[in-house]
Amino acid sequence: MIGLTRQMETRRLYQQIADQIRELIDQGEFQPGSRLPAERELAQKLGVSRPSLREALIALEIDGSVEIRMGSGVYVSAEPATTTWQTKSMGDSPTELMQARAAIEGATIVLAASRITPEALVTLRQLLDGMKKEIDLGKKPLDQDRLFHITIAEQSQNSVLARMVAELFDERHSPISAQFRVRFEDRETWTRALNEHEAILAALEMRDPLLAQAAMHSHLESSKQRWIEN
Questions:
Q1: Domains and CATH numbers, the chain
Q2: Taking burial as the number of CB atoms within 10 A of a residue's CB, which of 146, 157, 160, 187 is the most buried?
Q3: Pick from 139, 120, 114: nearest CA to 209
Q4: What is the pLDDT of residues 68-84, one digit of tens each?
Q5: What pLDDT digit, counting tens, does each position of 94-124 carry?
């Protein structure tokens, strides 16, 4: 019993919410092909936040239980996929992931601001120039974005922090985070991210730890709003 309790406690919130929705579908409250209640109404019904509900709906979309139609709503699949009654893990919660990144990268950049080398500043400028070129071509500059954040983390001269930043960033490739990227990232959001990166680089060039930290927090908070609270 203790082992089962611990197993249940480790289930992510979006998995638990997805299980609740799946149970309502199985009980016939939401019929195949029907539209689920509006996000605000469904969140109130389940007693959860809208970002957490959105994560659960994305998880259900991945396993084939629902279909999300942008501008229309969320519909129960006409032929729901055969799954177990529990929603499987699809990666860390994107909301919690962005919160963790803000905490870790916000601390890391304070160290980096006082230790960054001229060579690293040149590298960061080149990465942002590369980002702009990719965006202008209608592409997603994922590699440049990753290297920008990791280069800053490496300049902290703390290998543990640098490793944590890389691991948190690479969680973007988990199934649930990747699905958010597909749905909510476009040329406009990448252009905004580039502008925020420019502010971070400007603060680093001034070697101002507090300004750099504020710029990093602003960037990651804006990213969370674009990515998760869109």
A1: 2-76 (1.10.10.10), 94-227 (1.20.120.530)
A2: 146
A3: 114
A4: 998 889 999 987 655 55
A5: 999 999 999 999 999 999 999 999 999 999 9
